[in-house]
Amino acid sequence: MANQDDLFKKLVSHCKEYGFVFQSSEVYDGLAAVYDYGPYGVELKNNIKKYWWMAMVQMHENIVGLDAAIFMDPKTWQASGHVAAFSDPMIDNKDSNKRYRADQLVEEYVEKKVMKKANKEIEKARKRFGESFNEEEYRSTNPRVMGYLEKSKTILTRLNTSLTNGDLADVKNLIEELEIACPESGSRNWTEVREFNLMFNTQLGTIAGEAGKLYLRPETAQGIFVNFLNVQKTTRQKIPFGIAQIGKAFRNEIVARQFIFRMREFEQMEMQFFVRPGEQKKWYEYWKGFRMKWHQAIHPSKKLQFHDHEKLAFYADAALDIEFEFPFGFRELEGIHSRTDHDLNAHQELSGRKLQYFDPELKESYVPYVVETSIGVDRMFLATMANALVEETVPNADGKDSTRTVLRVHPALAPIKCAVLPLVKNNEEFTSKAREIFNHIKYSFECQYDEKDSPGKRYRRQDAIGTPYCITIDGQTLEDNTVTIRDRDTMEQTRIVIDNIEKVVLEKINMRHLLK
Ligand code: GAP
User: Fold this and answer.
1) How far is the CA of 82 from the centre of ligand 1 (A)?
2) Ramachandran assignment for 264, one of left (phi > 0), alpha (psi -120 to 50 degrees), beta (any other)
3) Which of 37, 87, 268, 340 for a ligand 1 pocket mutation test, highest count of atoms within 8 Å of Cβ?
């Protein structure tokens, strides 16, 4: 685990050092769980969004795009259920004034105080028995391990039952019984457990009081639902069809940790697929497979898994997460939900407007069912960085080994596609030729001109930001119009004619490689 922790720390500092992600308002000591994307971060993020948009909108005749506003009529959030139920149970420590998610305090207790002990016993036994160790059998026969597992189950079942029944007093009792102390003050001086709504709100300037209260959207999906008929009518789409959207969402997360994994301001890429009632299962399976393939084009399959939701929201008839193995374990990267006709019905009811589709084949009107795919751009960014960032040992020119940090991100997603490097900076012939090449190829993709430091250092800088190709202009370039082109992954250098640079790079960075 220490290794994974180190890896994560390295990832976070790499993001900062190389201009991918900065803490928001850092000069004022930073705003918690809010981040800014730096020069390479914004390029990578835009490429991730492009990959998603192409796969979902461009590749599907029956999916169209939308860019709805962040502010919506507050009734939207009444209809969607967010005003009443988009909340987490919170508890404050009266001594440290720190706020925690009550459920997470209990879950962390189980993980650290119970399961850690069980896992320690299991690992000890694994060492003792070697090859012949049967973990499953050990878990179900060793009295100490069985005791820990039973304790963990009892606590978590009670927590779930209390949360499902809205019995927050019992959640507080549980915290007290387990003698959970505040990690900051060490005291057990807790407030009651209360529901805390995660929506941020603000006030419309022209209307005072409750009537002027506006929410920052906590998901982009509702903008799609309320525009369903506008889009269907203007694009003449027939069911089944989808509406896709990329945009900011805001959640007042009580505990926001793990860098850009859980943020208060983040971006979502969501698609609502409108289908005939009764056909949702078929489409749910289709999107489950399609979305997994989209991830597998970038990430190794062993780092991805499905996680079916055991407890479904009351309106859903199926839901799962696609989980990615982050440095801190398998966590949700994307959600796929079969949301029935819940949202459209709710908006229809509250607005008094019909949100129905006339099916020309069935010759009847109905409220379509919806299968949703929803992924956080920032989580996808973190997964991409975590998977791509490697430290490896490579031979130097002098034959000795050194380590290099390389971001093996897919070339189609790489922030900079090609670096143009004059061999030396104080040779006007080299630099003007390099500039000439740079000014020619910059029309086709993101390039960078760099003449600072030695060629070795420049290569390392480009490796660290994931640039697939480096072009070097040297003495021979002036004689025969060829340059060396260095491949990031193999570090091999070959000579090509200047006129071929664009073709070679374009071939490598083509999104087609991912989409197919
Ligand atoms: N419309 C459905 C919806 O919003 P969700 O599971 O709450 O579902 C979808 O969110 C995705 O948005 C998640 O899988 C995750 O990738 C991303 N996401 C949610 N909360 C986030 C947060 N606080 N910070 C970063 N990403 C978040």
Assistant:
1) 14
2) alpha
3) 268
Q: Give dist(CA 501, CA 399) in Å, integer.
A: 30
Which residues approach ligand 1 with their CB closer than 6 A? 219, 221, 251, 253, 262-263, 266, 268, 270, 332-335, 372, 374-376, 378-379
- CA distances for 426 relative to 183, 335, 409, 463, 473, angstroms: 57, 54, 33, 24, 13
- As given in the structure block, the two tokens for residue 60 are 């599907």
- Cα of 402 to ligand 1 centre, how many Å? 40
pTM as predicted: 0.91
DSSP 26: G
The CA-based angle 67-73-78, given to 5 degrees, is 115
Lowest-pLDDT choice from 277-291, 365-379, 423-437: 423-437
Q: What share of the chain is helix, strand, coil (3-state, %, to 5)?
A: 45, 25, 30
- Nearest residue to 188 (alpha-carbon basis) of 178, 198, 200: 178
For ligand 1, the distance from its centroid to the CA atom of residue 119, given in whole angstroms, is: 30
**Tokens representing 68?**
């709805």
Does residue 1 carry a pLDDT above 80?
A: no
Question: How does pLDDT run across 347-358, given as a tens digit for each residue?
Answer: 999 999 999 999
Residue 287 corresponds to which amino acid? W
CA–CA distance, 11 with 407 (Å, rounded to integer):
11
Q: Are strands 493-497 and 469-473 parallel, antiparallel or unpaired?
A: unpaired
Amino acid, single-letter form, for residue 84: A
Q: What is the rounded distance in angstroms from the CA atom of residue 39 to the CA atom of residue 21?
A: 9
For the chain, counts of helices (H) and of strands (E): 19, 23
319 close to 336: Cβ distance less than 8 angstroms? yes
Query: How many angstroms is it from 216 CA to the middle of ligand 1?
Result: 15
pLDDT at residue 66, rounded to an integer: 98
> For residue 73, what are its two tokens?
């009529």
Q: Compute φ and ψ for 63, nearest 5 degrees.
A: -130, 130
Q: What is the pLDDT of residues 423-457, one digit of tens each?
A: 988 899 999 999 999 999 999 999 999 999 998 89
